[in-house]
């Protein structure tokens, strides 16, 4: 019987397939490590930037009219000039109190003297100022008071001026309620993180103020803003670009 010799052929090695498989297995690991690094690094870099930006954006101060008392408001007429022109004057005495708040935890405000003008139906009722310049520390409230006596000419050049004058006289002599708008003007600087920024001008408007008669005289002789009716003021031209107000 013939002996059959079995020939064993070597199996084909597949080294390339093994290497490719390893590379495929390693890719998810590298991707995972990359994403993990980004998750750790990005907050580490961005959080300080956000904190710095927030610190560079102080909240604006706020202003409120908390008290207004008018102890005199009446009219007088005089004949002036060679043509005996009739001129109306408005005589007033009033006490004004405002409150200024600094809501910031790490900002100090530096105020120049705050001046004010009081108007009723467009006519000047009085003007003055609150003391001198002052510094307002963080998270504090400052109360400012002023008392003024004023005599101002009531100018009536146009028909609407006469209409406004009639409304003002009705308030004084008939309605028992006076309508006011107060304008405040000042310059404010801010200090944050040891750095003092230059002062910039502020124009502040306090509209919609109503003072009611406090006596039963006819006409009334005094009016005041009810204590519970503090009026919030609006900053008209807050310098956002300079201070980056929040």
Automatic annotation (TrEMBL):
Localization of this protein: Membrane
PANTHER family recorded: LATE EMBRYOGENESIS ABUNDANT (LEA) HYDROXYPROLINE-RICH GLYCOPROTEIN FAMILY (PTHR31234), OS05G0199100 PROTEIN (PTHR31234:SF2)
This protein's record includes keyword Transferase: no
Origin: domain of life: Eukaryota
Protein's name according to its UniProt entry: Late embryogenesis abundant protein
Keywords (A to Z) from UniProt: Membrane, Transmembrane, Transmembrane helix
Transmembrane recorded as keyword: yes
GO BP term, example: defense response to other organism
Chief subcellular location: membrane
Residue span(s) of domain Late embryogenesis abundant protein LEA-2 subgroup: 97-203
Top-level taxonomy: Eukaryota, Viridiplantae, Streptophyta, Embryophyta, Tracheophyta
GO cellular component, one term: plasma membrane
């Amino acid at each position: 019987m013939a002996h059959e010799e079995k020939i064993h052929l070597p199996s084909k090695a597949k080294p390339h397939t093994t290497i490719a498989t390893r590379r495929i297995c390693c890719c998810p690991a590298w991707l995972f490590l990359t994403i993990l690094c980004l998750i750790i690094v990005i907050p580490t870099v961005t959080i300080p930037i956000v904190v710095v930006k927030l610190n560079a954006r102080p909240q604006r101060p706020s202003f409120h009219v908390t008290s207004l008392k008018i102890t005199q408001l009446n009219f007088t007429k005089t004949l002036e000039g060679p043509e005996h022109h009739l001129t109306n004057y408005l005589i007033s005495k009033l006490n004004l109190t405002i409150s200024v708040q600094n809501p910031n935890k790490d900002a100090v405000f530096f105020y120049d003297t705050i001046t004010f003008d009081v108007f009723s139906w467009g006519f000047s009722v009085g003007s003055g100022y609150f003391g001198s310049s002052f510094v307002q520390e963080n998270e504090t409230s400052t109360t400012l008071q002023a008392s003024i006596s004023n005599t101002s000419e009531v100018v009536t050049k146009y028909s609407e001026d006469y209409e406004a004058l009639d409304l003002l006289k009705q308030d004084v002599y008939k309605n028992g309620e006076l309508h006011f708008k107060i304008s405040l003007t000042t310059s404010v600087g801010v200090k944050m993180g040891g750095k003092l920024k230059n002062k910039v001008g502020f124009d502040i408007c306090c509209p919609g103020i109503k003072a009611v008669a406090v006596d039963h005289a006819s006409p009334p002789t005094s009016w005041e803003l009810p204590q519970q009716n503090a009026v919030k003021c609006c900053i008209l031209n807050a310098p956002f670009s300079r201070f980056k107000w929040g």
